Amino acid sequence: MKTAFKRTLLSALVVPFALAAQSASAVMITDWGYEVDSVFSNWTQTTGDGSVTATDSDRKLSWGVGSGPQSSVSITDVAEPSGLMTNGGFVDGGVFTHTNNTLPASGAALASFDLTSTLTLTPFAPPGDPLPPTSTKFISFFNETLNNGNCVDDSVSNCDDIFTIDNFEDLGAVDNGSGGFQFASSFILDDYKYTVFLELIGLAVLDDDACTAAGAASGCVGLLTEEGTANHFDTRFKITAVEVPEPGTLALLGMGLAGLGLARRRKAAKA
């Protein structure tokens, strides 16, 4: 058997073998169980009467004066054994609530806090062990506005309170296509790259006057919350996946293509 023919035959065998190795790789996980555990930490308060107190295992922060009205922020957790479909729609990730009551100006109020949401994914179809938990931390500032009618432009009450996110640029935010944001994080499992997209509904770029009132830079990102009611903001997330060849498969494929090229060059040189 001639050498050039041997190389051509070897290349012809290697290429399909590489492709077969890729097609025989691990199966994409199509359905996931999930658990979202969120807590507040590192909260601070303004000077004044009373103090910020934490309850529900640091899932709720409350403030007010004595036995009078109380305002609060809270977050709910979610746990489901399945239902998060790869390349499917969003699922519930919990609800962030600001109960915004009118408080005495002399009272202490929440000033800042960290909100950390930890997601644990467990393969359901095909089944597998839980993945290591991943966390997203929102470093947030809060402005308890005076209810004196001197409100920011977009305020719908007397007056809306203001939340801003201090570490927004560090969170991997992308435009969600409807004026809001998604926070994306990726991981590779077997032969697939999975990306989780987290959304907090209502989060948006605030007008400059709201940013100024909150002590934030122009173009800040946050929320306005209406006075005298409970403001609910849903969080949700989804997961996507794309196949990525294993390094060994790429190496085999490269060898095959290189062998074909070498054989063709030698054949051309002898012609």
TrEMBL record:
<dbReference type="Pfam" id="PF07589">
    <property type="entry name" value="PEP-CTERM"/>
</dbReference>
<dbReference type="InterPro" id="IPR013424">
    <property type="entry name" value="Ice-binding_C"/>
</dbReference>
<feature type="signal peptide">
    <location>
        <begin position="1"/>
        <end position="20"/>
    </location>
</feature>
<feature type="region of interest" description="Disordered">
    <location>
        <begin position="48"/>
        <end position="68"/>
    </location>
</feature>
<protein>
    <submittedName>
        <fullName>PEP-CTERM protein-sorting domain</fullName>
    </submittedName>
</protein>
<feature type="domain" description="Ice-binding protein C-terminal">
    <location>
        <begin position="244"/>
        <end position="266"/>
    </location>
</feature>
<keyword id="KW-0732">Signal</keyword>
